[in-house]
């Protein structure tokens, strides 16, 4: 089981991302069942070499907070505690939403790990 924590009245967690062999931990990641995709903050992931490249396609995503431009990258892996997915596609964006957030774990990730979210105990675990 992975512990979640409340911030701004919302469930947050920490993740580990690996890209081209470089690894980093990202804190303040929003667990968001209302988001179809997983988005990471551009300024944070640049530290391990995730940057926009000439052949990357820029797209627009929209949500409750408005619209923003993103580009997509495949990570070597993304991990939430011991729940790991290799070769996972994420969106990279500025994420200027008016509060401190380094990413969003969306439904694509949550479904892939077969997540069970227990908000009473503030934990997330894998379905049996």
Automatic annotation (TrEMBL):
Transmembrane segments: none annotated. GO terms for molecular function: aspartic-type endopeptidase activity. InterPro entries: Peptidase_A2_cat (IPR001995), Peptidase_aspartic_dom_sf (IPR021109), Retropepsin-like_bacterial (IPR034122). The keyword Hydrolase applies. One of its GO terms (biological process) is proteolysis. SUPFAM superfamilies: Acid proteases. Keywords: Hydrolase, Protease. The keyword Transit peptide does not apply. Residues 27-66 form the Peptidase A2 domain. This is Aspartyl protease.
């Amino acid at each position: 089981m992975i512990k979640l924590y409340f911030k701004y009245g919302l469930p947050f967690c920490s993740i580990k991302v690996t890209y081209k062999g470089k690894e980093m931990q990202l804190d303040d990641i929003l667990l968001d069942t209302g988001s179809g995709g997983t988005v990471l903050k551009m300024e944070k992931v640049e530290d391990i070499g995730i940057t926009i490249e000439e052949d990357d396609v820029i797209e627009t995503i929209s949500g409750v907070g408005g619209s923003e431009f993103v580009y997509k990258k495949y990570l070597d892996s993304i991990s939430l505690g011991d729940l790991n997915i290799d070769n996972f596609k994420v969106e990279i964006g500025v994420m200027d939403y008016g509060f401190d957030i380094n990413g969003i774990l969306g439904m694509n990730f949550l479904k892939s790990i077969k997540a069970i979210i227990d908000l009473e105990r503030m934990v997330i675990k894998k379905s049996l």
